[in-house]
Amino acid sequence: MGSLHLLAVPFPAQGHVIPLMELSQNLVRHGFKITFVNSDFSQERIVKSFTGKDDVGDQIRLVSIPDGLEAWEDRNDLGKLCEGMLRIMPKKLEELIQEINRTDDHKITCVIADGSMGWALEVAEKMGIKRTLFSPAAAAIMVLEYRIQKLIDDGILDNDGKPLCRPLLIVFQQHVMHWKFMRNFAH
């Protein structure tokens, strides 16, 4: 069997791309081949950041697919970005995997998707490819996101993620938004 060919799919934000790229670089050192999928919008900046470095090498191929937004649209509007990605990226990722598997000697054997890109795992499952989730967040944040429903049920947070009891020193809003997005995506 040749080297395993993994497809890495980060959420298109710096705090997501860099950790998955670091994981990919470590996997390359252990003999894996990586295709790293960026959004078209992020691709140019990422390619420039690796120009002249040996970190990527021949075993990490940087590719891109559209994120569903026009060049002029605001990618800081998380709702709009997520809607665009869900509308366009699953089909484009499936097409990319089909193209790679048709033309590359090493077919995609596994998809590693950022926790915010769960749709990529569904594409992999549909295509019969092994898949795994990667979370760039700290473990405490991941646990918090999994427990938001309990915090709501226990009356600590309202449905919008606002504390109902004395002020809490925890930043809930972003994680509640991510939790709602993932909950709605799962249904």
From TrEMBL:
It comes from the Eukaryota. Keywords: Transferase. It comes from Vitis vinifera. SUPFAM superfamilies: UDP-Glycosyltransferase/glycogen phosphorylase. The keyword Transferase applies. The keyword Amino-acid biosynthesis does not apply. Belongs to the UDP-glycosyltransferase family. One of its GO terms (molecular function) is transferase activity. This is UDP-glycosyltransferase 83A1. Gene3D superfamilies: Glycogen Phosphorylase B.
